[in-house]
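Quick sanity check, Nucleotidyltransferase-like protein:
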Amino acid sequence: MNDHIHLRKAEGKWVIRTDSAVLGETLNAIELTEGSRDPVIYFPREDVAMVMFDKSDKTTACPFKGEASYYSIVGVNGTLKDAAWSYESPREGLEAIAGYLAFAPDVTKVGQY
């Protein structure tokens, strides 16, 4: 793992929501810090309402984390395109986030409770 990426258990209860719905709650979130960027909270899929997610065609590649797959959130107020991403097979040292979801902060709200 690259020295500028750090994982740790995100203590406490975390909730992911949009303006119209709670998408998930977890006590098992992982915080990923990459360099000087803001930390990103990753949620395990079993704690997220995956029925509201459609996998999109979008993928991106990070030289440190690997290839990310994207998901759109489908709700009563419409679709939030590519609002979540997941590393299905992250690079060595980051296996803990495999299959977890992270969320775009401009369209979702991640909070600790």
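Posting the structure with no commentary besides this: The chain has a mean pLDDT of 94.
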